[in-house]
Amino acid sequence: MPKTHKIKLNYEFQDPILSGEKSFEVRWNDRGYQKGDFVKFHVAEGRKNAYEPIEDKMYRITYVLSGWHIEPGYVVFGIKEVKDGDGDG
Question: For 2-32, how does the pLDDT look when each residue is reduced to its tens digit (9 = 90+)?
Fold first, then answer.
């Protein structure tokens, strides 16, 4: 069964993810990220009391890569926004 991971995101990465320019995350794999899981972002260093549009979106993990010269304990995973009807996250 897919999990939903709620993870912090630095403010500077919000716009590149929203535009689709950044379609991956590099993370310490302390949560057991798996293909098919969902991600909800929380902007950790945003503007105080500001609306952060990424917090209303859900992303699906499309691919998980470890090894291949990636620091041990870390993973790189692909993300794709879940549109209405795409998932049950």
Answer: 999 999 999 899 999 999 999 999 999 999 9
- Residues with Cβ within 8 Å of residue 25, at least 6 apart in sequence: 7, 39, 76, 77, 79
Phi then psi for 25, rounded to 5 degrees?
A: -135, 145
| Cβ-based neighbour number of residue 29 at 10 Å | 15
Q: Could you tell me how many residues make up the chain?
A: 89
Structure tokens at 1: 């069964």
Q: Examine residue 86 and state whether it is found in any structural domain, yes or no.
A: no
Torsion of Cα atoms, 51 then 56 then 62 then 68, to 10°: 30
Domain CATH for 18: 2.30.130.30
- Overall number of domains in the chain: 1
For the chain, how are helix, strand and coil distributed in percent, rounded to 5? 15, 35, 50
Q: Which amino acid is at 56?
A: D
pLDDT at residue number 84: 75
